[in-house]
Amino acid sequence: MKPTLPERDREVCWHPYTQHALDTEPLPVVGASGAWLELADGSKRLDAIASWWANLHGHGRPEFVEAMRRQAEQLDHIMFAGFTHEAGVELAEKVLEIAPEPLTKVFYSDNGSTAVEVALKAAYQTWVRRGEPSRTIFLALNGAYHGDTFGAMAVGEPEPFFAEFSPFLFHVVHVDPTAESLQEALADLDGRVAGFILEPLVQGAAGMCMHDIEFLKDARRICDDYGIFLIADEVMTGFGRTGKIFACDHADISPDLMCLAKGLTGGIFPLSATLVSEEIYQAFLDDERAKAFFHGHTFSGHPIGCAVGLASLKVLKEEDTPAKLDHIGKRIEQGLQTALAWDGVKEVRRCGGIVALELDLSCDGGSDDGNGKGGYLAPVGERLRKACREHPQVLLRPLGHIMYAMPPSCVTDEECDLIAAAILSVVQSTLQ
Q1: Residue 414 CB contacts under 8 Å (≥ 6 apart), including other chains
Q2: What is the CA angle 158-161-166, rounded to 5?
Q3: Residue 372 pLDDT class (50, 70, 90 cuts)
Q4: Are 412 and 288 within one domain?
Q5: Domain stop point among 318, 343, 366
Q6: Closest CA relative to residue 379, chosen from 394, 359, 396, 395
Q7: How far is 415 from 332, CA to CA, in rounded Å?
Q8: In a shared domain, residues 295 and 365
Q9: Which of 21, 39, 233, 317 is the most exposed place for a label (fewest CB within 10 A)?
Q10: Phi, psi at residue 209, to the nearest 5°?
């Protein structure tokens, strides 16, 4: 008998963020169209999490497929060190047109983690170029997640993902999303801090934790007061997810560096970008070649990815994707209101098209104590995962004790209602 796709997978594949001793059967996806995924058995599931928060407009859009085809026929790939191409230049122009001022330059890489690495290296090396190499400390938010490469791990919360790598990670101080906490840390470390990195408004992997717009304004002001760089990781929040093109737009602030990925190409091609201010770019201009920014990737500025990025930005503008996502979020949030009366449900929160329902950890004796008994590894999370997997219509994936939805902008009102109903069903079955 011919082995199934999951059986073949089990022999050769090692999946990200997967405990294979527990998760033995990956869902076999054989097709996708719009907001729907087709499984090997012919069933379909609504992609309520946008394929790891990336798919912005829907799967299989013909204009994106055509953009890839045209670009591949003309120029499939060329290194971006010492070379350039139309798609790379035009995408940089278009991104800078919608980005906060005074961001003036685009450095391409290939995923969110590498976009963060670029930002951290550029921020620190700018201080070195200025003759202040002692500024070796970065600030980040409690619960932060910025990726899985070493610099990105360093600015992330150690538990539960990165604690074992602590011997290799540089010094980072984590703060609460309050002006007081940030101010206190900078006062204690004055003259030693290179920059402050945050996911503006929504911390994704932390459980869709949300802070207010005033904190973004305070963060910009305080970073200016202490003369340090503000780095906005908009890998997840960018391109309309929060109801505006960028989360920073809500506070009308401009970071010194901004990290983009996921929605940059509509979530269908690996490409990322780090946007920097002219001040940072100028720090690397010198007659000495050794003072260049020595960082790069084989597929930096990949022409096909840039072509898809241009097609995605066109749709973003023509369809007003941020407004569509905001409407979607409101509809799903409305559908979840009945859960607020249930024992074990702590709150429902929303930012644009991102909606989260948080369970009270006391419902299973857990606690968010940082020792693996709460949060991402909360025992109730395993029950949520099982219930999500068994749902016959909607693809959901909890973050520990947090249920969330972040669907693509193509979902209809009826599909929003289906997502809300699925979350309610999963939570209700878990709490019983």
Answers
A1: none
A2: 45
A3: very low
A4: no
A5: 318
A6: 359
A7: 9
A8: no
A9: 21
A10: -70, 140
**CA torsion through residues 38, 44, 46, 51, sign:** negative
Last residue of a domain, one of 318, 340, 363: 318
CB 228 within 8 Å of CB 137: no
Residues annotated as catalytic are: 17, 145, 233, 262
CA–CA separation, 36 and 293 (whole Å): 42
Same domain for 311 and 330?
no
Do 170 and 309 belong to one domain? Answer: yes
For the chain, the first-to-last Cα distance in angstroms comes to: 40
Evaluate whether 230 touches 217 at the Cβ level (below 8 Å). no
Q: Could you give the angle at the alpha carbon of 249 between the alpha carbons of 61 and 147, nearest 5°? A: 65
Cα 397 to Cα 426: distance, rounded to the nearest angstrom: 11
Q: Give the number of other Cβ atoms within 10 Å of residue 101's Cβ.
A: 8
DSSP state of 99: S
Same domain, 276 and 378: no
Q: Does residue 235 sit in the same domain as residue 130?
A: yes
Write the CATH number for 99. Answer: 3.40.640.10
Burial 241-257 (b: 16+ CB within 10 A, else e): bbbbbbbbbbbebbbbb
Which secondary-structure segment (H or E) carries 393?
none
Element (H, E) at 46: strand 44-47
- b/e string for 351-389 if b means 16 or more Cβ within 10 A? bbbbbbbbbbbebbebeeeeeeebbbebebbebbbebbe
- For residue 374, give its domain range: 5-57+320-431
Question: How many structural domains compose the chain?
Answer: 2
The domain that holds 393 is classified in CATH as 3.90.1150.10
Q: What is the pTM of this model?
A: 0.96
Structure tokens at 96: 């800078």
Same-domain status, 272 and 367: no
The per-residue pLDDT for range 225-249, each reduced to its tens digit, is 999 999 999 999 999 999 999 999 9
Among candidate residues 136, 226, 224, 218, the one with its CA nearest the CA of residue 187: 226
Cβ-contact 347, 339 below 8 angstroms: no
What whole-number distance in Å separates Cα of residue 361 and Cα of residue 136? 37
Q: 28 exposed, middle or buried (CB, 10 Å; 0-12, 13-18, 19+)? A: middle
Residues 309 and 365 in one domain: no
CA–CA dist 34, 213 (Å, integer) = 32
